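hi!! sorry for the late reply, been swamped w classes. u asked for the two structures so here they r. pasted raw, havent cleaned anything up. first the sequence of the first protein and right below it the tokens
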Amino acid sequence: MLWAFRKLRDERGGTFVLAIVGLVVMLILGTSFIGRTINALYHAKNARDDMTALGLAESGVDMVVCMLYDDYGSISSQLAGSGQYHQTFSMPRGTSDVQVYTNYAGVPDALLIRSTGTTYNNVDARVRVIAKAMTDVSRVFRGAIFSDSPMTLHGSGTVLPDASGDGGDIYSNGDITFSGTSFTMSNTGHIYTTGTTNWVPPQVPGTNVFQNIAPIPMPVIDLTWYQNHATRVVNGNLTVNGGEFDLDGITYVTGDVRLAGNYRGRGIIVAAGKIRITGNVTAITGESGSDEYALVVMSPRAVSISGNSTVEGLVYAHNVDAEVTLSGNPYIKGAVCADVVTTNGSITVEYSDVWSGLGLPGQDKTQYQQVSWQRVM
């Protein structure tokens, strides 16, 4: 009996020791886990702060480019006088300190922009940008599809040149991805991308494919300019639902536009809001000669074309992430240019340039294209 009691006591002591060891191991593991978690949170916070600072630095560059476009604060005269400009901008999450120098490397139209972003908790990032004055930004309008961001062409599609064999091109500021291999182009067509393309339609010769090229800037939609030069201003929304309508110069709409019908004449429809095309928008048959009609629709927000709509004209959407959405089986005789081009279904874009002289974006203004970008801190 005494022997059994001693054995039970020894087992209880061993169990107690094992329990203590287990608790110590769990404490060590828990401490290690907490340490790793704290370390991960610390690095995540640092990465977030670093990205915020970098965003502030890039915002400073964007602010200067916008100021140069409108000569805000007489920035152009300051640069012409001293060759330098310095400004600190207050942003929601910190500041951007920007320095601008003219005639970079002896090039008259080149600027060196140094921008330092500083968060409220004193995390810094600095970028160095070389920008070049662009007085002609019409290159954007010389191809069938122009996207200022990476582009995926879903489904099937066709891109054709005009009767002279020009303009049957696709451009993307980023990679071009064909989601299938049922896309048709012509042997005079070109593919331009600042990244790479995952596929090339068999009709396009290899010598017409250009990858990793310099980006092309999109001309700004200057809403104030269009409103001041408009022949007609519509306050609120504009709906044209079938029938015939006349074009004459610039129609400026402060709201959204819903469009379907046959047009007569030449003109631009500029909407401060969104544009939705729900049916055919074509020139009235019987007009004498292609130069007798031309249509441009522009929005800084979005343009959508759906169904089996046929649109004769230039479709343009540009701001930061303005989008043109093509869904169903639309046929565009003109061109599509946007920050983001989204396609679903089977699209056809046949290039046609009939908008010459209509006052496209980029008129009477000088824009600056970033030709070099480098993070230096």
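now the second protein. again sequence first, tokens right under
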Amino acid sequence: MVKTVDRIDKQILATLIENPTEPFLKIAKKLDISPSTVKKRYEKMKNRVFSNPFVIIDLSKLGFQGKAFLLVSNSIEGNPQLTLDRLHQMPNVFLIAETIGKFDFIAYVAFRDIKEIKKIVNEIRELPSVKKVDVTLTEQTDFPTRRQYSTSS
């Protein structure tokens, strides 16, 4: 039986997403519940909600100025594995996902400046297996994306 995450669990998660090192005592005060309740709920969620521990990296501290989201379409005669292998070899690619729909892959790429991202995009576009690459840029440098979750009652 799958147990659902309730409003309090969501609030605890939202706090930990914002600050993974937030002490249970501060979370408890913020949510007006006891620290032992926070700890018990965290322990229960740890095995069913968290698949792996994660760290949010501030890429700007490594010299990156932003992220690009590359939406890649393979050509009909192209080999998707060739595209995937090449994306995996690129040092600035942090995440690749196969998609269903208009595009075959999405790649998250960190870049230091416009010249660097243009070079990466052109390298991908030149692959014989690639039909099209659409690019969306953001100045946001958190990876993965830091996100605020709204909690509804």
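hope this helps!! also noticed smth abt the second:
The helical segments are 7-18, 24-31, 35-48, 80-89, 114-125.
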